[in-house]
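Supplementary Methods, section 5.1.

A reviewer requested that the exact input to the structure prediction be made available. We therefore reproduce it here, unchanged from the version used in the analyses.
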Amino acid sequence: MNESLELDPEGPDAYVQLARVVIKLGFINSTSSGANFKDGTLRTARQLLDTAMQLDANNGNVLVLYGHLATLEGRYEFAERLLTRADELGVEHPWLHPNWAALYLETDRPEEAFSRYLLVINSGTDNRVVVGTAYKGLRDYYRSIGDMKRVEETYLSQIELDPNKAWHHGNYANFLLSHREDEVDKAIFHAERALSLMDYPLGRRLYLKALCRKLETVADPAKAREIETKARSVDSEACGSAIIR
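The structure derived from this sequence is encoded token-by-token as follows.
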């Protein structure tokens, strides 16, 4: 990034890229009350974006990222002015709609956020991170109105779009275990698929949970032993733990 500044010290995009890296590296976690960052992260990013704005106040990259930063800082009116300007200029940026949606959610406008997420899905963008953000936004909205059928559709749509992503299968298995008690076989299938793509702790836990739940309903001893053997191949104490159950 420093090289980009040396090559084009008068260009705003270099400062935008630096600000993006600062925000990414300074991120700690997300909670129900918002995102948490290391001390000084947002201030440093703001200084970089102020410089970028001075160089070109109508640069789409500047407007989109600064709009997001202003949302993170709670400067909602300023964020809306920046994102509105991006819209007026016809900026085509993969994060424009998600950043609008984030602002709408922070200002208690979930329906408008939902509309922006739909725009992302319908845009046909191949940016998988952006699409994943949009699907999560749609899921959260559908959950908030109690439409679990559409929640499930978002999981299936993501699997169809990117069938070789382990997390998509694992997340769907988790949904099934939480909301579709009669779909244990399907949960097992998707948990197995997730682990075949990537061996990760949560995937193993979901697989064990699905197998142990299936074991509780199996009457045939041979079938029960088969399921238990699968479970114990992942964890020798599987199906004997109250946590797993």
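DSSP finds 13 helices and two strands in the chain. These observations are discussed further in the main text.
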